[in-house]
Amino acid sequence: MTVSTMRSDEARLNWRELLDQVLANQAAEIVIERYSKPLAVVVNHTAWDKMKKAHIAMLDRLSAEMDEDPSMAVPWEEVKQGMKARGLLDE
Predict the structure, then answer these.
(1) What is the reported pTM?
(2) What are the start and end residues of each CATH 3.40.1620 domain in the chain?
């Protein structure tokens, strides 16, 4: 998958070209940065839809596995601590 970066001011000025680039290359991902920090990603809708469906399928599979073997379950407090450590949860 082709990943490129673009500053937010550049993306704003070249929005149509950015969309055309993503449309032309379904594997393209463009990371929009503000002050050199990733802010958003522009990705082709077809690719996004595939990622979304794959994510849902993975969650369904994991859920079914945990239903079959409850010992696979992880306590919420442990999950929450891991998410906080990775910066995925603020509390």
Answers:
(1) 0.63
(2) 1-43
